[in-house]
Structure formats: structure tokens, C-alpha cells
Amino acid sequence: MGEIFTSLQGEGPLLGRRQVFVRLSGCSLGCSYCDTRAYLRRTEKCRLETAPGSRTFVDLRNPLRVDMVTECVKLHASPEVHSVSVTGGEPLEQPGFTEGLAGELKGLGMRVYLETNGFSLDLFSRISKHIDIAAIDVKMPGTVRCSRDLCDRLVENELACLERSSELGIYTIAKVVVQQETEEHDLERICCEMPSVDAIVIQPVSGQIMSELKLLALHSIAARHIGAERAMVIPQMHRALGMM
Fold first, then answer.
1. pTM of this prediction?
2. How much is the pLDDT for 47?
3. Beta bridge partner(s), residue 116
4. Coil, strand or helix: which one is 45?
5. Cα–Cα distance list, 147 to 29, 95, 128, 183 (Å)
6. Please, which residues bridge with residue 137 across strands?
7. C-alpha dist (Å) from residue 225 to 27, 56, 113, 220, 235
8. Cα distance between residue 161 and residue 238, in whole Å
9. Which of 11, 143, 161, 210 has the most crowded Cβ, counting Cβ within 10 A?
10. CA distance 110 to 112
């Protein structure tokens, strides 16, 4: 476990909703645009915000059990909270823990928002019954350090996770991080293979200026495949506002 805190969702169609964030540490991908590199490896301690929004933290020694994390989340629960974001790192790399935690939170009547890179359809399927909202990455070529074969298999799993999520009635968000170098034909190819989802979010990589013309072109590709209502370009607003 990496950290537990309260903030506002800074990405995608749920932008601005208040959430309790449960960030697991450990991720094997190492994407070029990763904004939580401190949590790529498992951490010895977990930071717990002592009160919502206080930005005062105490350290808890890992590993934490599901019941301990659930109690931490309950400290942050309030009627204003929209959902609990289980994020990373990569939650699917700790499938037993993530399944147990999502089940506990669901049992308490909390909505569970899973943010994942979707590297494994089997692991996603294992926990999907506890998920209300799934934000699943679709990696563009060149953003993950791996061979072309491995990248192709990663994208196959991501698209399969999107399809399974949508079939199960989970509110499903496909997140595609783009940069100025992103080739339009690559996005076109991915959109052609993408199942019907609730939203495709084109997310410009933070810290890089992209031309409006480029963003409009990428948006047009997504909109042609899913419709103008569900295609959107949204930057990371929490970064722009200096929030966690």
C-alpha cells in the first residue's frame, strides 16, 4: 500500500468528484508518462492522511491487511464522497488484496472506481463483480518499454478488459494518453478495435504543449467511432491545480 487520502478526481468524465484515493504500490510497466513513479516499487510504508484534505500524514508499516485499509477509508468517508478510487501503482498486480478490498468497500455501500492498465483480462475479471466504474488505459505505441509483441499483447488485454467491463454494465472509461508525436493512424487502429464504452478520454500528457489542431484531429477520430457525446479531450486537472 502506498497512500490513502481524499481529493478530487482529476481525470476523465468524473472530473471534480470527491473521492477517497487508495493507492497501491508496485507496477511492472513503467510508462514514459507515469506521474506516480514513487509507487512503481512496493513501499515499506503507507502514508495515511490524518483528515480529509489536511495533507498531514502518518506512516503505517506495510503490509496492511484489507480490514486495516478499510478502516482507513472509513475515516475519510462522508456523504460528499462520490466513490473510492483504487489506483496505483497497478491494483491488478495485487489481485487477492484488491479483490478483498473492493468487496469490503462494496459491502459497506461505497462505489468502487478501479483505475488500471488492464494488463490481464483474467485478473480484471476476477474482481470485476465488485467494481462500479473502471478507467482502463489503452497504451499507444512507444509509451511502454517492451517489445512490439509484448505491447501488442498488452493492448489486446486492455481492449478485452474494456469489453468485459462494458458487458458487465460497469461504467467503462477508456483512457488514451497522447503526445504531440502520437500518430493519428495508431489511434484510428485502436478505436477500430475498441468495444463500445461509456467514454473515450484523450488525455494529453502533462507537461507537454500540444497543438489544438492535433488535439482536434485525435478527438475527431474517437468521435467518429463512439459518437461526439462520449469522446472527449481532458487533461490532468489535478496537476494543473497543484493537487494530489
1. 0.95
2. 98
3. 136
4. strand
5. 12, 25, 29, 18
6. 175
7. 31, 45, 25, 9, 21
8. 26
9. 161
10. 6
pLDDT, tens digit (0-9, with 9 covering 90-100), for 62-81: 999 999 999 999 999 999 99
136 three-state secondary structure: strand
For residue 207, what pLDDT is reported? 86
DSSP string, 157-209: HHHHHHHHHHHTT-EEEEEEEE-TT--HHHHHHHHHHPPP-SEEEEEEPTT--
Q: How far apart are CA 79 and CA 86, in angstroms?
A: 19
And the C-alpha cell for 104? 469490503
What's the pLDDT at 156? 96
More confident residue, 21 or 151: 21
Asked whether 112 and 91 are in contact (CB, 8 A), the reply is no
Say if residues 215 and 202 touch (Cβ distance below 8 Å): yes
Helix crossing, 184-193 with 148-167: angle to 10°?
Answer: 40
Residue 145 CB: number of other CB atoms within 10 A? 11
Angle between helices 66-76 and 95-107 (to 10 degrees): 40
**Is the pLDDT confidence value at 57 over 90?**
yes
